[in-house]
Design a protein that fits this description.
alpha+beta, 5-stranded mixed beta sheet, 11 helices, 5 strands, 65% helix
């Protein structure tokens, strides 16, 4: 079944009712004029008008006419036949040709509708000339002009309808695209927040808890003989727990690290080294290189977190006796360096992915944090030769995050993600 018309709207329904009223009015006019004027064929004209009205009324009442072009064509043929009978009986039937134009153009395909309109106009002109007993140009102007107006109106409406449909489809596509974009942005935001939370937890709570674990293990080894030493380790573990709790509370509140409150980054790094050296069997020293660079808060937080994570890796994995942290300025970059004399490692032998049980998130988190600010992170290490970690952050905001990374740094960064 072919759909011949779009779903009716209040406007189209109003136009349809106007067309129905026009047909009924013109048929009634033909019947009334025939009876009022006392014409010879008044009764047949009245019957012809009534029959045409009945055939026409069947169309709106039959649902199939609205959904099948073939049924609509048969109905139009029946209406046309009834109209021709009326046209033979009365010249007033010529006026019914005008609404028939609209029906034919609306219900038939374009070519068939145009042919039907031409045939209807020709029949109207011929019948009117026959009733008048003569033919003149004026007799052809009325039906022909009506046909031209009907074609222009219907085709113009169809063009407007097609344009409206295209715009409606574009609006629906735009709405769907906006919904997809909003969902994608939401998903990206969730992933970015998860990544941020993972970095913050790793660089604060996880490192603090790891430190507590090492201190308590040291306390276990000194019991029961070294009660004083055990008490010192327990006290340090309690202080580490206090610091981790403060980090957690500030982290939840999305504030700067407590180590940076009311102090500068060099002071925070110096306290970090002092705390690390006190809690573990390790000589940790901070050394500023030149005047400390002025950095935004986000850069200071990133460098402090990187230093915390690097020192935690040194304590847990390197077996080092000394570590030095330096902070300085080189060209247009702030440079943080962490150097230890530990066992070192082979960057190429790192596991393919971090292990939730054994760790391995440190370098991946450091690299993600530094890359988010447009900086670079490199690791120089070899078995038995210690490890040097260097973080560089631009003093000015880069055009593209991660710009300026050399091929060596890119290779290092890829391996760091597995430590």
């Amino acid at each position: 079944m072919n759909t011949i018309a779009p779903a009716p709207t209040p406007t189209t329904r109003a136009l349809s009712w106007c067309l129905h009223l026009l047909v009924v009015g013109l048929l009634a006019l033909a019947a009334v004029r025939a009876v009022a004027d006392g014409r010879p064929h008044a009764v047949p004209t009245l019957a012809g008008a009534a029959g045409c009205a009945v055939v026409y009324a069947a169309g709106p009442l039959l649902p199939r006419i609205h959904g099948d072009r073939r049924a609509a064509a048969w109905w139009l043929a029946a209406v046309g036949a009834a109209w021709l009978v009326l046209l033979v009986l009365s010249a007033d039937g010529v006026w019914v040709a005008f609404p028939l134009y609209f029906l034919q153009l609306h219900l038939l395909p374009r070519r068939a509708g145009l042919a039907a309109v031409a045939a209807t106009a020709g029949a109207a002109i011929a019948a009117f000339a026959a009733h008048q007993g003569a033919f003149g140009a004026a007799m052809a102007i009325g039906p022909a002009l009506g046909a031209a107006v009907a074609v222009a109106v219907v085709w113009g409406y169809q063009a407007l309808y097609r344009e409206s449909e295209r715009r409606r489809q574009l609006i629906e596509e735009l709405t769907a695209t906006r919904a997809d974009l909003a969902e994608a942005q939401h998903t990206a935001g969730v992933l970015a927040e998860r990544e941020r939370l993972a970095r913050e937890i790793h660089d604060t709570l996880a490192q603090g808890l790891s430190s507590i674990q090492l201190l308590l293990r040291a306390a276990e080894r000194t019991l029961p003989d070294g009660a004083d030493s055990a008490a010192r380790h327990v006290g340090q573990a309690r202080q580490a727990a206090v610091d981790s709790l403060a980090e957690a509370r500030r982290f939840v509140a999305a504030l700067a690290p407590p180590a940076l409150e009311g102090s500068t980054l060099p002071d925070a790094l110096e306290r970090l080294c002092a705390t690390t050296g006190t809690r573990h069997r390790l000589t940790a020293r901070f050394r500023p290189v030149g005047a400390p660079p002025a950095l935004p808060t986000a850069h200071e937080v990133a460098l402090l977190r990187i230093a915390q994570s690097a020192l935690a890796n040194t304590v847990r994995h390197a077996g080092a006796t000394a570590v030095e942290v330096t902070l300085g300025r080189r060209d247009d970059e702030a440079v943080l360096t962490v150097v230890d004399d530990g066992a070192g490692f082979d960057p190429g032998g790192l596991p393919a992915a971090p292990d939730p049980e054994t760790g391995g998130f440190g370098l991946a988190a450091m690299h993600a944090r530094i890359r988010a600010l447009g900086g670079t992170l490199t690791v120089d290490s070899a078995p038995g030769h210690g490890t040097t970690l260097t973080a560089r952050l631009p003093l000015t905001r880069p055009r593209t995050a991660g710009a300026g990374m050399t091929s060596t740094e890119t290779t290092s960064a890829e391996t760091e993600a597995h430590r």
